[in-house]
Amino acid sequence: MRVIPAADVNRALHSVNLVERLRTAFRSEQMKMTRAGMTAQAPSGTENSVTNTIVWTEGRFIGVRINSTFPENADAGKATELGLYVLLSGRNGDALAMIDGPALFSWARAATMGLAASYFARPDCERLLLIGVSPDIRPILQTFAAIRPIANVLIWDPDRDKALKAASILDKEDRRVAATDDLEAAIRGAHVICHASKTVSAPLKCAWLPSGAHLTLQWPQDTEPPMTLDNWTNVYLSIDQKPEDADTQPGPLSISPADLFQVARGDAPGRANYAQRTAFLQGGTGLEDLVCAITALELT
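Given the sequence above, the corresponding structure tokens read:
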């Protein structure tokens, strides 16, 4: 069994077109998935959690995502999301690799956002707004820049110092990256708005979305919306995988959004016209983690 640390994951997944690999998987893979989890309260009352997600593409691979969330880690300057990914053979059950979780999960989320944007974001998008600073920012920026001609990037975070630091690290000669503290103006001027941190919540009014804009929100299933969502009339909504009870869920899911599997297979439409406003809610299917794990194993 191989052990693949974060540095090797980042090096491998930085060098490959994950969006196209994920597109192929969404179009063709037949998979089974199950989730299980548990929670426990810390002495302070904060709820910590561990979730296992198992994906099996029969005859090929089995992927087991072990994901822990400890919110109070942030107070000590540590990551709040930790975990591992275990890759097994789908033919005989052999253990193939144990992979650093946070690095893999960041690239998987970014690849899913990029896949959705390839169907819903306008081809001429140049201005990207990233809401929230997290380890996902670099993979997200690289992924969007690979599929759209991104030239200007703004970063907003409740902690302005975090936004300034991230912008200074990511700023490049061919792509201007800066921090902003005016969220409404940044949204109104953006072509693509990306919610880059699950731990950052912000007020978001659909009236701020300009004509032709595309919005991506990280919204794990069975959780509260990450932002204030209002008046989704005339916004074409999609989600990576529609929950079985989606039609009974409150808020945007009651609109019966398009499923990204359906869109990738041509069974549901992508963007219909230049002026259409689109939104993608990312809950996580498990398939994106498996694709990234297989890629990391192949390239390290």
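Confidence is low (pLDDT under 50) at residues 245-255. Try to locate this feature in the token string yourself.
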